[in-house]
Amino acid sequence: MRNVPLIVPIMTAFLLIFFLMGSHASASYGWGYKKNTDHKIPDVGKYQKILDDYGAYYADHSGDKVIYLTFDNGYEQGYTDDILDVLKEENVPATFFVTGHYVKSKPDLIKRMVDEGHIIGNHSYHHPDMTILTKEGMRKELEELEEAVAAISDQDELKYMRPPKGVFNEKTLEWANDLGYIHVFWSLAFADWNTNDQKGWKYAYDQIMNQVHPGAIVLLHTVSSDNAESLSKLVTELKKQGYSFKSLDDLVMKNMLPEAVYGY
User: Fold this and answer.
1) Distant-in-sequence, close-in-space partners of 247: CB < 8 Å, separation ≥ 6
2) Total number of domains constituting the chain
């Protein structure tokens, strides 16, 4: 018993070191980058190596004047049909990252997205912070969403995911890979999700045109009336400037195949 006073502080110190090491290993990050108006891919600092290590994307670094439109859909405000109309008219592909609530409440729109050639991405079923889940919890979130989409559309497999609120860490990136998913972040976005603070189509138009760059993965929200009203004008102007619109499948394929095979 004479050793107890010595053992207690040693054990306390050991547990503290273990806790700190564990906390560091599972530290979470919120996606972000340094915006610029130079029409260049924004710098993401230390995130670049992390994304490279796990095959994640936030932009196309080839230098080609290509844009990848992506939309996050958690709920519906009545503008998605208008957005789909523009995409169809302009022959522009997009990826829609959806939640379980969206799939359950708007199956007709999910079906239309798929029928018109767009990709459904996984934004999780319940929109949780993925970094606080176990691997099994993450698997359940992704599989539930995938099954819900497959039940109402012809897309029976999802392969791209966007973590809720852009929160991630190396653990979630690794687990996503294990589960067959590729993380897709973004290199162009603005505050468009507040439905009570829409500023008119010109605001959305200017935000995108000021930040646009070759290889941009653009994040938009379909709840924005500004986005719906500006989209046709944006697509028209960007095509005039020599940009083309591709899907995430094109981006991944480009990075898998030799340049000569892909045709660039």
Assistant:
1) 68, 93, 94, 95, 118, 119
2) 1
Q: What is the DSSP string of 27-56?
A: --EE---B--SSSSPPB-TTHHHHHHHTT-
Does some domain include residue 76? yes
> Which residue is listed with tokens 């936030």?
58
Q: The domain containing residue 229 runs over which residues?
A: 34-262
Catalytic residue numbers, as ranges = 72, 221
Residues 23-72 pLDDT 10s: 334 689 999 999 999 999 999 999 999 999 999 999 999 999 999 999 99
Residue 22 lies in a domain: no
Examine residue 23 and state whether it is found in any structural domain, yes or no.
Answer: no
pLDDT digits (tens, 9 = 90+) for 68-117: 999 999 999 999 999 999 999 999 999 999 999 999 999 999 999 999 99
If phi > 0 it is left, if psi is from -120 to 50 it is alpha, else beta; for residue 216 that is beta
Domain containing residue 104: CATH number: 3.20.20.370
pLDDT in tens, 171-180: 999 999 999 9
User: Does residue 193 belong to any structural domain of this protein?
Assistant: yes
DSSP state, residue 8: H
SS3 23: helix
H/E segment holding residue 244: strand 244-245
